[in-house]
Amino acid sequence: MSRNRHNRAVHRPIPQMPHLPRPLFARVESLERPAATDWHSHPWAQLSYATQGVLSVHTQTGRFLAPPQRAILVPPDMPHAVLSSPRTEMRSLYLEPQVVGWIEEHCRVLEITPLLRELISAFGQVPAEYALDGADARLVDVLLDQLRIAPRTGLFLPWPADPRLQAPCERLYQSPEHSVSLQQWSQELGISEKTLSRRFLRETGIGFRAWYQRLRLLHALPLLDQGQSVTDVALACGYDSTSAFIAAFRQQLGITPGALTGKAGKIAEPAPVERYRLDT
After folding, report:
1. How large is the average pLDDT for residues 234-257?
2. Is residue 112 a contact partner of residue 148, using CB atoms and an 8 Å limit?
3. Are 24 and 143 in contact (CB under 8 A)?
4. Helices within the chain (DSSP H only)
5. How far is CA 95 from CA 46, 144, 241, in A?
6. What is the mean pLDDT of residues 236-240?
7. For the chain, which terminus, N or C, has the lower number of CB atoms within 10 Å?
């Protein structure tokens, strides 16, 4: 997710906790302005979920984006940074490794089903030090089970490890509306187009053309969430027509732009109890 050039992201402090009070812990944040954390890691897994706004998690291997009703699951001990769009309502779940033995080695973007959404909301009313043998613990068991089977989505952009490829990728990530060809890039790096194409495929697992298209489509998520029209977003992402943008969006992400960020069906969440909050 690109930072708004006219509303630069503010630094968001990282909570310092020596350990979690229970196997599952939650943190609630309301972020009016764009915000970003420093790169960090922790010994527990983290689910970053926004009921409003768009979240982005950066790791050494990819950029993972989650509009509303999607969430990003970060494995334990993985270095990462979290960025958020303006007016984000964020719900973070911290999970001890022993309760997520099924978790994969890489970040994943999960679909938050209606049931999972309600479970997360209900857990927001549970004390941080909930009883381990009561109804709250059983709620946690159901929540963890639903996380385990939550559908995975393709809202991520693989990132090259080769430093020679990272700088150009970062420039494109910050300004995806600027058109660039593999030939131009190969001339900049002083290597043949064929060599660059093979290296990029080896580093990211997809070809440059598909990578660049996915980059532009993911860049559209925060713009759509801000209420911009599909036509304006298509132009901002470098597409010549709205129909071409919608077709590419559906092909790459499996859903239309309007359906992905539609507000229909959302319900308000009750405010969490104060003892459940973690001050930063």
Report:
1. 84
2. no
3. yes
4. 114-123, 135-148, 163-174, 182-189, 193-204, 208-225, 230-236, 242-253, 257-261
5. 6, 9, 44
6. 84
7. C
Query: What does the block give as tokens for 61?
Result: 């291997």
Partners of 56 in beta bridges:
65, 83
Percent of the chain with pLDDT over 90: 44
Rounded to whole angstroms, the Cα distance separating 159 from 200 reads: 10
> How far apart (Å, rounded) are the C-alpha atoms in residues 84 and 77?
21
**CA–CA separation, 103 and 39 (whole Å):** 21
Q: Which residues contact 179 (CB under 8 A, 6 or more apart)?
A: 238
Would you state the structure tokens that stand for residue 80, as one six-digit string?
Answer: 């990462």
pLDDT at 108: 93
Tokens 């909930």, residue located? 130
Residue with tokens 């812990």: 25
Q: Tell me the sheet residues that pair with 76.
A: none
Closest to 89 measured CA to CA, from 51, 130, 118:
51
Report pTM: 0.81
Q: Which residue has the tokens 């959302």?
A: 266
Sheet with 70-74, edge to edge strand ranges: 24-31, 88-95, 45-52, 70-74, 108-111, 152-153
Q: What is the DSSP letter of 268?
A: P
